[in-house]
Design a protein that fits this description.
About 0% of the residues lie in helices and about 40% in strands. With about 80 residues, it is mainly β. The protein has a 4-stranded antiparallel β-sheet, with no helix packed on it. The radius of gyration is 12 Å and the shape is globular. The two termini are about 20 Å apart. About 15% of the residues are buried. The mean pLDDT is about 80.
Length: about 80
């Protein structure tokens, strides 16, 4: 899932103890359960934001919305 070019940069934990990690090397956000299983991933290269978004930091709100800054495009991606 991580691929060959991996750099974990940001980490966030939600109210359910799921862990979110940004993978800047592969432009992904991964969600892990508290037992370490991958629940979900978001490939920013395959999303509506196909502008080489590189996720650095990360935040998760109480509704489980994920936010990551994309400084190279001057915005926050949800």
């Amino acid at each position: 899932m991580w691929g060959s070019n991996t750099t974990a940069y940001g980490v966030a934990v939600d109210a359910s103890d799921n862990v979110y990690v940004t993978n800047t090397g592969n432009n992904r956000v991964l969600q892990y359960s508290s037992d370490g299983s991958i629940i979900w991933f978001w490939d920013l290269r395959e999303s509506e934001y196909r502008q080489s978004e590189v996720p650095y930091g990360i935040a998760v709100d109480l509704a489980h919305n994920v936010y990551t800054p994309a400084p190279q495009n001057n915005r926050v991606v949800q």
